[in-house]
Fold:
Amino acid sequence: MTWQGALQPIILVAVVAVLAWSVGSYLYRVFENQRTYLDPVLIPVERAVYRLCGVDPQAEMRWTTYVFALLAVNVVGFLVLFGLLTLQPLLPLNPAHLPAIPFWTAWNTAVSFMTNTNWQVYGGETTMSYLSQSWLVVQQFLSPVSGICLFLAVARGFSRQNSRTLGNFWHDFVRSLLWVAVPFAIVATIVLVALGSPQNLKAYTHVTTLQGGHQIIAQGPIAAMTAIMQLGDNGGGFMNMNAAHPFEAPNVASLLFQLVLGFAIPAGLIYVFGKMIKDRRQSWAIFAAMAVMFIGGSLVLYHFEAAGSAMLPMHQVHLASAGNMVGKETRFGVGTTSLFENSTTAVSWGSVAASNDSLTPIGGMVALFNMLTGEVIFGSWGVGMIGMLAYVVLAIFLAGLMVGRTPEYLGKKIGAYEVKMAVLAMVVPSFVILILAALSVVIRPGLAGIFNPGPHGLTEVLYAFASGVGNNGSAFGGLAAASPWYAATVGVAMLLGRFPMYIPLVAMASVLAGKQRIPVSAGTFPTHGPLFVVLLVGTVLIVGALVFFPVLALGPLAEQFAMRSGQLF
Amino acid sequence: MTVASSHPEPVPIPAGPGDRPSQTPRPPRRDERLWTRELMSAAAVNGLRKLDPRSMVRNPVMFVVEVGSVFTTADALRYLVTGHLALFSFVGQISVWLWLTVLFANFAEAMAEGRGQAHAAALRRTRVETVARRETATGLEEVPATVLAKGDVVRVDANGIIPSDGEVIEGVASVDESAITGESAPVIRESGGDRSAVTGGTRVTSDWLRIRIAAGRGETFLDRMIELIETSQRRKTPNEIALALLLAGMTLIFLVVVVTLAPFSAYSHAPVSVTVLIALLVALAPTTIGGLLSAIGISGMNRLLERNVLALTGRAVEAAGDVSVIMLDKTGTLTLGNRQATEFICAPGVDPTQLATAAQLASLADETPEGRSIVVLAKTAHGLREQPLGEREAAFVPFSAQTRMSGVDLGAQQIRKGAVDAVAAWTGQSIPDEVAATVDRISRSGGTPLLVAQDRRVLGTVHLKDVVKEGIKDRLQALRSAGVKTVMITGDNPVTAAAIASEVGVDEFLAEATPERKMEYVKAMKAEGYLVGMVGDGTNDAPALANADVAVAMNTGTMAAREAGNMIDLDSNPTKLIEIVEVGKQILITRGALTTFSVANDVAKYFAIIPAMFVVAFPGLSALNVMHLTSPGTAILSAIIFNALIIPALIPLALRGVHYRPAGAAVILRRNLLIYGMGGIILPFAGIKVIDMAVSALHLVSVIH
Structure:
């Protein structure tokens, strides 16, 4: 562990803070219909879309209508994708005559790309026709934009008062797509091309290597795919190796750009929240809580990766470069790779720059823990922020009474209904992960898919479901993810981790929006200072740890301690 | 502007304790002692009775513990029958401690309820059957009080018991209300005005009253009071419901954690017994707060009762903690209620002694507090004894609404004191400029100037001042630091009101208050999101009371006010609202502190139980045994014992409430997070370690589970 390596996450957070402010200011203008530079081009497009679809972007919606519209868009996306996958041989743009996708794979993939998970149980170039691939790209735009809509609906619960409505879904959806997803993706693509990623539609190049061997070099619109993959926190990469591939991340500069790109919108939305409630201190408190957990996680992960395996010294093996380099890209080294791997589960983009299966047990546990706590350390577009707001409600409710008032956040009283919804949002992911993982380690199809028995296998199973529920999409590996059991159950996990987790929060917001705001006084629970940051971090960590500590003890913790005494799994 | 003796003091109510809270002791409180032998033994019996699953199920957290206890007990018996005595000993001990956990929680609740029930029983004893004398067309008939209907008119003579609640329609009498209030000094009840309500069960000690009955059988104040005390213990407040929901949700999550742990441990070849899984569940479930939650609420109601405040709804008690604006009447609450002479200011060329003498003489016959205060000021400031008038021919001129002055004629010498314009008119000349300036200054400072004149010549001015109650300023300051805004309500003009408001230290004032303006003000505050607390006694307060979130009606007040309020102060002490707010906050803080403590405790329990469960399969996990507990068996037993014992250890805190001193939320949060959050994490590490040492020393566990 070097100080330069340890400094990286701190510098990254500083950069992200600036990004949060600048991107957030722009996003706020977009959502509030204020003027932006893109208006001359986009407003006609926007109007055309509304006219074409016959929707009124001004009509205020109750939460049920809003959610219904959101679900409708998502279900249509799911059905189109599912249809394209299962009917692939009958459809055009399939020059390679690729066969129909098996049912469970199609289910898994369709859910995966609807829920912004982008968990891939297939090999792209050998499974998907160009038509299927192109709709997968469409979904990589639609699913994160849906996340923004969820965020806006929840945020309005806090910013409005005496209101029965939470805004208009079509307005939020179209503007997020036109003003945010598309232009950001175009800019990011250009930057990635400038940094050396290929962007072409050429056939794969056949070369003869210096040693006289034959090699096929895959290429294509890699910069564009990588751009939306990172920007939208999707993780559905062009290359199987994701960012470890030299075309996706040709150099450290490109990798760092992608790292920062993934943070842009989630961090910006934190700032937007503060603008909406007209108290930016609240945003910075939440940002600080996320930053503390992000830096903490990065340092722990880096520490254990830098320390490497305890087995090597035990067997008199001494490497020239310290640290666990197994499964890592030598161009990036332990420090940067550790940072990227912590970010992939924290910010929920799910693309990897290393093989997570080869991380040290504790290193892997950090990545796992980021997802187990609900992907609230920045998280993906919008949903990371509202997941954190659920924790805020919980923290306020547990500790808020201690100031001698019934709990309130941003002047809104937290009543039984709000608590019920926040608890539901907490309960769903834990239940799904625990129950599905528990089933998988006792029934035959589940056990059959585990390649490494013992604690490591348990970690693999947990990671798969955590990644599914967290809509992360990164894979630990070592698991037969494409087997019907895992394809089906992870699909269920992805679905449950999206809508049943976040819709209750919209319902909660609708009740909050209807409430009168209570004026701030000296008796108000302070939610913007360091004390609140500590409380919030404590709540996330303790609640997360309380639920998963026993199973983590049997998985990564048991493995790490066993490694010390020379036992591997 | 009126003169001092505008009208006689309405009713010589014995000075209530609240009039000078810092000087007079509290009224005798009921059931001050927490731990009496009778209360504890009754609570122990009731605690056992509460084991009935039908009543346990209302508290999901403890119900889960009870079900777990049944399972482990069955397990223990199985080991006994099959002769595995070592296992029987371990599982049996776990079972005993699980049962004790449930019992301790039940005991806490029963203790809290017991105090309320004792109070209700005492009240029920005062509900004697009386005979009422009801008016009929022909005269009076004697009927049992129970047949009285609303609207009947009864007559009660001296030493008669008032048969039911009602409104005095004729007569003035002193009434002994000690049965309700515990206050032994009788109070005056009279028709008309704001002191017309009488309560069934109280006794007329002198004179007689005609009363129109306002409540039928079972609806009287006493009945409602008894019913409230008994039922308030079962109804949960909104925040309690929300918290209970969260606790139930947490218990459910832990249930899933523990149930799924069985397959995980089977997969890991680290099987654990059902008893150990149940022990883990109970250790993780928020049993501490789950067990004490209802006791905290009930004892909060009891604390109000001890202060002679009857909360008609639990919601009101909770709202009291949330109140962000309190409206206080100026007179009687913030000021002593009568103006006092504080200064004599001479006209040019008048000797101070001459002015003081004249003022004193003019006030000798004035029995109003204002008049008496002038006599006293002359005595203390100028050393003037009360002058013997017997030898002199004195004709007192009483105050009248027409003349608006009073005085004395000593032979030819005429002395008058009174309203400025009235006295000036009497002198028949314009008042000197200096005196006019003094009058102006006094008026603007919120005081009342009186002119004193002798033989048509103005001698000077008496400064009558609203005297702010001792200590009230500090209490308002404390409230402000706790984020509660104070509003003074007064009938005075805005100038006077502003002066007094700044002297008392309230944040806002409502001058020239009328019933409508008061209600409008309450509504406006609520529209801005404030929670409003107010005190009222008169019928004209009723509309505002009905709109306030915390509405404290004085027991001496009218029926209308009592019905509009959601709390009744039996002492009729308007300053009580401040105490009510503090009790409300205290309940919430206690609830929050124990919740935080309970959740924080889980960290240590994990470090005790998890390594113990899996250390056989994964010896490396002993690294997590940071407390160095002796063996897996002792570790699990110690965690469970700690979990059980912490409940009785915290009962006194739950019943008495966390110490509360008004301060800003940030300060309170920092202190309580440190004590109950950090303390909650650290304390169980020490506690479990100590228990483990004791368990090992006593050789209580002989097997690894």
